Automatic annotation (TrEMBL):
It comes from marine sediment metagenome. It is found in: Cell membrane. This is Major facilitator superfamily (MFS) profile domain-containing protein. It is a multi-pass membrane protein. The chain crosses the membrane at residues 7-32, 44-63, 72-92, 98-122, 134-153, 159-183.
Length: 191
């Protein structure tokens, strides 16, 4: 299976790492808003609304164009922007919920544009008779790492401080995506 699907192992590893990095941020966002920024439920609701508006905007953008060239560049570039969104939210001055909302908008937009590109790459790279197995493996990897990210989020945020932890997550996400782009053959594959 891995030999007949070029780049799948790298894509699966990318998905695993991306989920592991993003899950702790999402799990700790309510704490970040209420404790770090002294926000209320209404502040969190507005911040999450920014993410939903970003998701809807991203979905509209992705649906307007039928054929996308340089899918790997779009996927990994979008993932870098997702982590920039994490950093924008992290560096928001205390009580500046609008800035956190901008970070969440970026995250929502890039996830809504990146995930369809990711699944398009998988569908075009994998032969139809193997798609069920490949998608199952991919989903298993992604779902398996999420609880681990949830479990380590609290202790790491306590140990490092939530802002430091978010900075590490954002920078790690950027570095991982750049390393995958420049150090693997993924960017040379034609999807």
């Amino acid at each position: 299976m891995l030999k007949t699907t070029p780049g799948f192992l790298v894509l699966a590893l990318w998905s695993l790492i991306a989920n592991f990095i993003l899950v702790p941020f999402n799990i700790l966002l309510p704490y970040f808003v209420s404790i770090t920024h002294s926000g209320a439920e209404s502040n969190l609701a507005i911040i999450l609304a920014f993410m939903q508006v970003g998701s809807i905007t991203g979905a509209l953008v992705i649906s307007m164009k039928k054929v996308w060239e340089k899918k790997v560049l779009i996927l990994l570039g979008g993932a870098v922007l997702t982590n920039i969104g994490v950093l924008v939210a992290t560096f928001a001055p205390i009580g500046q919920f609008f800035v956190i909302g901008i970070g969440e908008f970026i995250i929502g937009f890039t996830l809504a544009t990146g995930l369809p590109i990711y699944f398009t790459i998988l569908q075009t790279a994998v032969s139809p008779d193997m798609q069920g197995r490949i998608f199952s493996i991919d989903a298993t990897f992604s779902f398996a790492i999420m609880p681990i990210g949830m479990i380590v989020a609290g202790p790491l945020a306590n140990f490092l401080g939530i802002i430091n932890f978010f900075i590490i997550l954002g920078i790690s996400g950027i570095v991982v995506n750049l390393l995958i782009y420049f150090l693997t053959n993924l960017r040379h594959l034609k999807y």
